[in-house]
Amino acid sequence: MPRVEEYVEIKRPVNRVFAYLTDEKNWPHWTSSVLEAEQTSVGQIGIGTTFRGVDQIMGHRIAWVSKITEYEPNRRMSHVLTSGNNLVEQHLTFNSIEGGTKFNFVYDMKAGGLLKFIAPILVITVRKAVKKNLNKLKAILEEQA
Length: 145
Hints:
By secondary structure, the protein is of the alpha+beta class. Helices cover about 25% and strands about 45% of the residues. The radius of gyration is 15 Å and the shape is globular.
């Protein structure tokens, strides 16, 4: 399974970073590929919460659904995202550091169909996008200070 792992240090408290990142309404603001995202389950966010959305990747609109598999406020959130026969496990971890938060982002991809043949190219594209998105996230959150 191709894996992308990056982190960013943000000069904001963990609780603020966690709240921003776990609110799906914010995903299109800091993630360049996300066009739409909405919670589809009822109630507060936690293990089992479901979402649906649309990404644009390499010029193609891709619909997806996801389900939270791990949720610990101000520490971690993981979810499994599926789109057709493609699966992504996304792991977000939040650590308090002096002056702010270290946010780790891990993206494990299991490409199916034709995507499995371009997975090495896709990983390069995703890694570049993740780095850019994390820098945008840092700017957005630090601007709110």
